[in-house]
Design brief:
Layout: H1 3-27, H2 30-47, E1 58-63, H3 65-71, H4 78-89, E2 95-99, H5 108-118, E3 123-131, E4 139-141, H6 145-148, E5 152-155, E6 159-160, E7 166-170, E8 172-175, E9 178-181, H7 183-192, E10 198-199, E11 204-206, E12 209-211, E13 220-222, E14 234-236, H8 237-242, E15 254-259, E16 267-268, E17 278-279, H9 280-293, E18 298-299, H10 301-322, H11 325-349, E19 351-352, H12 355-418, H13 423-455, E20 463-466, H14 467-482, E21 488-493, E22 497-500, H15 502-518, E23 525-532, E24 536-542, H16 550-553, H17 564-567, H18 577-587, E25 591-597, E26 601-609
Helix pairs in contact: 1-10, 1-12, 2-12, 4-5, 7-9, 10-11, 10-12, 11-12, 12-13, 13-18, 14-15, 15-18
This protein binds adenosine-5'-diphosphate (ADP).
The site of adenosine-5'-diphosphate has 22 residues, from helix 15 and helix 18.
Length: 611
């Protein structure tokens, strides 16, 4: 495994860890849960009105604005209420539900008439509410005893979420040492003739109907709304009083009577309500509908949410690792669209997905993953750019190095081709061409060898090298090069043999000498020393040149580094020579050092281990 893939894996492992670490905050966060609820609201609205058998089982009687205008003020006088109920009784409904709080004693004769009117129905459910729910001493507001006698009492509470929308109902509400079932639930129980409900930790059973409302979630049941307000047949209470209502539509039904007049306060917001909220009786009817149709909506639950989120993280991470560019975008978009589609399908199947949490998880995984991948990519890109630059420089360097011998070959061959040259001179020129072309081959070979050595694909060709002979040959070449600046080359060479690659070592020493010539003024001297100690052989090249400032002394061994001063000078260079020298010396197990002071001169020393 290369260092880069190692690093990439580490970065990826790190971002998966970060996403998993923030997972609980993403899932169990009030805001995100709210987003989940909103998403599901959108889906519920998009799927439109639902066919429901409950429209044939439920009818509503609305004490609406017109009723209030004619027979008000609200609350309606009990005698009026009794009068309407007496008309309703003629229709023989199965259960009558009064979504009204009849807790305060009224005029006795009117209360007595109301009690008598309730006696006409086989089943009546009366509303109760827990006052001061959040306080220390909550109190049940119960219907008057003479009305409640022998009849069912049920709670009228809805259970709004933090945003005020009613998405669920508490099937049973407890407080002040008593508990009451929900109005809609009790209506279904009486209508279906079920016995007392059976409760388990996971559900409440009403005869054959099993309602998934867990004890741990306070028996909360999600309401599966049939549609916006108006999904159930409805008659005005005023029409009952006027005798204008068609009574047949109440026969054998659950009839829910309640106030719908605006300003009555009995309106609440739901995912399907309009700007003025949904009336209480419509919400109760939807509770009845959810139970009767058994269209329960079950939230995914903690374990499901966790497993789903981990799966999504895995998907997003895989997409980020496998795909790039448009494909990555397409993959992530597909995940998001699939999520929304899953939300649609799951609501049909009776499950509510935590879409907000899932979307947050996807966005977090994609976001954090994307940033990490971007960082990795830009690193890799920067590395590539540097390599490309180095490559370009290398090509330049090689081009430059081969230009000099090529020019000599060109010039000489041109002169020969012009003819008329004495035989002896022609032979000399041909010799020069031969020598230069050999040098050219050697030069290219050196470049290639150093590159291969550095990459580890070539090992040194060690042999016993007589440094005296090697240096003599180098100095001869060096003198030719130094002649143009009238620079002298002195030598003090001990008779030493060393194990080395002669071509490469020769390249290194020659380079130090030509540098000495290039970076020294005319008429100076360069000295080449070869000394030996017990442990090493030291080859030094000293000049009386321009010198190198301390700050630059480390950097001159970097590839393509040149002093600013020399970049502008007439001396050609590429900054690669010393990098190659250093590579060669290191491959021999040695070291190269420099001592230098500006305008005094420099001394480069190659120390090679003996033996
Ligand atoms: P090049 O000579 O092609 O520029 P090198 O790698 O051989 O490349 O040298 C790197 C730089 O170090 C040179 O450009 C020059 O600025 C500086 N340098 C090398 N040798 C000497 C020297 N003997 N005296 C002063 N400066 C030197």
């Amino acid at each position: 495994m290369t260092a880069i893939t190692m690093k990439a894996r580490l970065v990826r492992a790190l971002y998966v860890l970060i996403v998993v670490a923030v997972l609980p905050f993403l899932i169990w966060n009030g805001f995100i849960q709210q987003v989940s609820a909103e998403w599901n609201d959108i889906i519920v609205r998009l799927r439109g009105a639902q066919a429901t058998s409950a429209t044939g089982a439920v009818a509503l009687v609305a004490i609406d604005d017109q009723t209030a205008a004619r027979y008000g003020p609200l609350p309606l006088n009990r005698a009026r209420l009794a009068e309407g109920l007496e008309v309703l009784a003629q229709a023989h409904p199965r259960v009558v539900v009064l979504d009204l709080l009849l807790s305060e004693a009224g005029e006795p004769s009117q209360d007595a008439r109301l009690a008598r009117s309730l006696g006409h129905f086989p089943h009546v459910v009366l509303g109760a509410a827990l006052e001061g729910d959040a306080s220390e001493n909550p109190r049940w507001i119960l219907p008057l005893p003479e009305l409640a006698q022998g009849r069912s009492t049920a709670h009228v509470h809805a259970a709004p979420d933090a945003d005020g929308d009613v998405r669920s109902v508490l099937l049973v509400k407890a407080g002040s040492a008593r508990r009451f079932w929900a109005l809609g639930f009790e209506a279904v129980r009486l209508a279906t003739g079920a016995d007392r409900p059976l409760e388990s930790a996971e559900a409440v059973s009403l005869g054959p109907i099993r309602i998934p409302a867990t004890d741990s979630e306070s028996r909360l049941m999600m309401i599966n709304y049939a549609g916006p307000e108006g999904a159930f047949p409805r008659v005005r209470f005023g029409d009952l009083l006027d005798g204008a209502a068609n009574l047949t539509q109440f026969r054998d039904k659950i009839v829910i009577v309640g106030v719908t007049a605006q300003g009555s306060g009995d309106r609440l917001f739901t995912p399907l309500s309009s700007g003025i909220g949904m009336s209480g009786i419509e919400i109760h009817a939807n509770v009845v509908r959810t139970i009767l149709d058994r269209t329960f909506l079950v939230p995914l639950g903690v374990a499901g949410e966790l497993v789903g989120s981990l799966l999504l993280i895995a998907l997003c991470v895989a997409a980020i690792i496998w795909f790039r560019g448009v494909r990555l975008f397409a993959a992530l978009t597909t995940v998001l669209l699939a999520l929304v589609a899953a939300g649609f399908l799951s609501i049909r199947a009776g499950y509510i997905l935590p879409l907000g949490s899932f979307l947050a998880v996807c966005l977090a995984a994609s976001g954090i993953g994307g940033i990490s991948e971007y960082a990795l990519l830009s690193r890799a890109l920067a590395g590539e750019t540097t390599k490309r630059k180095e490559y370009a420089f290398r090509v330049q360097a090689i081009a430059h190095e081969i230009k000099t011998p090529l020019t000599a070959i060109q010039g000489s061959s041109e002169m020969i081709s012009e003819g008329g040259m004495p035989e002896q001179q022609r032979t000399e020129m041909a010799g020069l061409i031969h020598k230069e072309s050999k040098r050219l081959t050697a030069l290219i070979q050196t470049f290639l060898n150093v590159e291969r050595l550095a990459s580890g694909s070539l090992s040194l060709q060690h042999q016993q090298v007589d440094l005296g002979v090697l240096c003599q040959e180098i100095v001869e070449r060096g003198r030719l090069f130094a002649a143009r600046k009238r620079i002298q080359i002195e030598t003090a060479i001990a008779d030493v043999r060393v194990s080395a690659d002669p071509d490469l070592l020769s390249f290194a020493i020659y380079n130090l000498i030509t540098n000495g010539v290039k970076y020294s003024p005319k008429n100076t001297t360069i000295s080449l020393f070869v000394e030996e100690s017990d442990s090493e052989v030291r080859i030094s090249v000293a000049d009386q040149g321009y010198g190198i400032a301390t700050a630059d002394q480390e950097r001159i061994f970097e590839k393509f580094y040149r002093l600013k001063r020399d970049e502008k000078s007439a001396e050609e260079g590429t900054g690669i020579g010393l990098a190659l020298v250093k590579e060669i010396v290191q491959q021999h197990g040695g070291q190269i050092t420099v001592e230098s002071a500006p305008n005094t001169g420099s001394r480069f020393t190659i120390a090679l281990p003996r033996g």
